Amino acid sequence: MDKLTNRFTSIEQVAGRYLKPNRITETAGAPQVSFEEILRGKQSEESSELKFSKHASMRLKERNISLTMEQSARLESGVLRAGEKGIKDSLVMIDSLAFIVNVPNRTVVTAMDQTEQQDNIYTNIDGAVIM
Questions:
Q1: How many C-beta atoms lie closer than 10 Å to residue 87's C-beta?
Q2: Is the pLDDT at 38 greater than 90, yes or no?
């Protein structure tokens, strides 16, 4: 702005003074992360968690099945191994417990203990992992 006449000498001065162009503020030393990178990170975190379907949760409760930390870790490991082999719907056996797991969704579909395994017939699976 020309101080003597109190007028702007260019359109850039007007835009800079009144329109306040978008400025990207950066935190010193912090790397810029895109929305896509954040989204993919969150999706991979969520997909790595093993979930229990409503049906499986009900079965665990009805049958008084509670998993120890060690059994949970073995179940997770069994699901990972099933995924590595390309299994979609897997039977994962841990001690006297049997779990049917949808591997791509990382979801336990149902669970049973030794008392329900009398027939030893499992349907709608394409692989089994015995831990």
A1: 20
A2: no
pLDDT greater at residue 100 or residue 25: 100
28: left (phi over 0), alpha (psi -120 to 50) or beta: beta
Give the pair of three-digit tokens for residue 56: 């499986």
Query: What ranges make up the beta strands (E) of the chain?
Result: 51-52, 89-94, 97-102, 107-112, 127-130
Question: What does the pLDDT look like over 57-101, one tens digit per residue?
Answer: 999 999 899 999 999 999 999 999 999 999 999 999 999 899 999
CA nearest to 80, candidates 57, 122, 113, 50: 50
Please answer whether residues 128 and 70 qualify as being in contact, where contact means their C-beta atoms are separated by less than 8 angstroms.
Answer: no
Q: Which neighbouring-strand residues pair with 22?
A: none
